[in-house]
Design a protein that fits this description.
Elements: H1 6-11, H2 16-26, H3 30-38, H4 42-50, E1 59-63, H5 69-76, E2 81-86, H6 89-98, E3 104-106, E4 120-129, H7 138-145, E5 146-156, H8 158-161, H9 166-175, E6 179-184, E7 201-207
Parallel strand pairs: 1-2, 1-4, 2-3, 4-5
Antiparallel strand pairs: 5-7, 6-7
Helix pairs in contact: 4-5
C-alpha cells in the first residue's frame, strides 16, 4: 500500500475489482487515516445539504457507503432507517459494526442493484463519484430505487463532471423526466490536508418518476 497518499492509491485502481481489493486492504485503518492525513469533511457537508430536503423519518440508502461515515453522521441528526451498499466487503464489515444500518450488502454502481424500484425515500453518496470510482451510469440505478418526490445528494468532482460522462447522464435523466437538479453547491475543498488543490461539489437531485 502507498503510505504517502492512500487516496491517490485507490484512485489509480485499474478496474472495479482492483478498487474493491484496495478498499478491502485499507478498511481497518480508513477512518483514522482519512481524518488524520486528509481531514475529509465530505460526509458532513453532504449531510448538511441532505437534511435541508429530507426528514429524519425517511428511509435512506447510503450509496457506496464505505465504512459508514455518512450513515454515522445521519444517525447523529436523528435518522434511524438506513440501509447501505458498497463494492468492498472489507468496508462493509466496518459499516456493520456501527450499528446504524439495517440491510448492508455488496452492490456495484454501474450494475443492476438488488433493490426494488422506488423502495427508498432518499439516497446519499459521499466520495463515490470521483476519479477511478463509480461511473456516471450508476446514477440510473440510484434514480430507480428512490421514490418519486425523493432526493439524492452526492459529492462530485467538477473536473470529471463533463469528461467522465456525468454531465451527459445528468441531462439524459432530466430529459427523460426522471429527476431534476435542485441544488449545486460551490466547489469546495473536502480533503484539505491530502488534496488541498482538489475541489468537490455537492449536487442534490429530486426524483420525479
Amino acid at each position: 500500500m502507498n503510505e504517502q497518499n492512500k487516496v491517490q492509491w485507490v484512485y489509480a485502481s485499474k478496474n472495479q475489482d482492483e478498487l474493491a481489493q484496495r478498499y478491502d486492504e485499507w478498511a481497518g485503518e480508513y477512518d483514522a487515516d482519512l481524518a488524520r492525513d486528509f481531514d475529509w469533511v465530505g460526509h458532513v457537508v453532504t449531510v448538511d445539504a441532505f437534511v435541508k430536503h429530507v426528514a429524519p423519518d425517511a428511509k435512506v440508502m447510503d450509496v457506496g457507503a464505505g465504512t459508514g461515515l455518512a450513515g454515522a453522521e445521519l444517525a447523529k441528526r436523528g435518522f434511524k432507517s438506513m440501509d447501505a451498499f458498497d463494492l468492498s466487503e472489507g468496508m462493509l464489515a466496518e459499516a456493520r459494526n456501527l450499528g446504524v444500518y439495517g440491510d448492508v450488502r455488496k452492490g456495484v454502481l454501474g450494475e443492476t442493484l438488488a433493490y426494488k424500484t422506488a423502495s427508498y425515500d432518499a439516497a446519499i453518496a459521499t466520495g463515490v463519484f470521483s476519479v477511478g470510482h463509480a461511473p456516471a451510469s450508476g446514477w440510473d440505478e440510484v434514480a430507480r430505487i428512490v421514490k418519486p418526490g425523493g432526493y439524492f445528494a452526492c459529492t462530485l468532482r467538477p473536473d470529471i463532471y463533463e469528461p467522465n460522462g456525468f454531465k451527459a447522464k445528468e441531462e439524459e435523466l432530466a430529459i427523460d423526466g426522471k429527476w431534476k437538479l435542485v441544488e449545486a453547491g460551490e466547489p469546495i475543498v473536502m480533503l484539505p490536508k491530502g488534496e488541498p488543490d482538489i475541489r468537490h461539489q455537492i449536487r442534490v437531485y429530486q426524483i420525479l418518476k
